[in-house]
Specification:
The chain is mainly α and 108 residues long. It has one domain. Helices cover 79% and strands 0% of the residues. Keywords: Membrane, Transmembrane, Transmembrane helix.
Length: 108
């Protein structure tokens, strides 16, 4: 519940930011990273608590498909946000270094 609340607050702070020049380079990507990490932690904790409750309630049945099914939402969330993570890391780390590197100005 805590990580879900933090992720919602991070995403709402992105919506209500002032959109200044420094925000696009540093603040907004950091908030997006924090929101995605806490959202992923929220999904993992939710699946773990559901699995623990299910195992405590249904102790008599020994079915091996439930642990595989509980990992499905975690892997689905990771796969759906993988390209977003790659583009976020690329735009904040590699593109900012290339953008502000001093260059020699040529006239041709």
């Amino acid at each position: 519940m805590f990580s879900l609340t933090v992720s919602m607050m991070m995403f709402f702070s992105i919506l209500t930011s002032r959109y200044g020049e420094d925000d696009f380079l540093f603040t907004l990507p950091a908030k997006l990273k924090g929101g995605l990490v806490t959202l992923f932690a929220s999904v993992v904790c939710m699946v773990l608590t559901f699995s623990a409750t299910f195992f405590l309630v249904c102790r008599k049945e020994k079915d091996g498909t439930l642990p595989g099914l509980t990992l499905f939402p975690i892997t689905l969330h990771a796969m759906l946000n993988f390209r977003l993570w790659i583009s976020l890391i690329h735009s904040t780390i590699w593109a900012s270094r290339l953008m502000f590197r001093p260059r020699k100005h040529r006239l041709f």
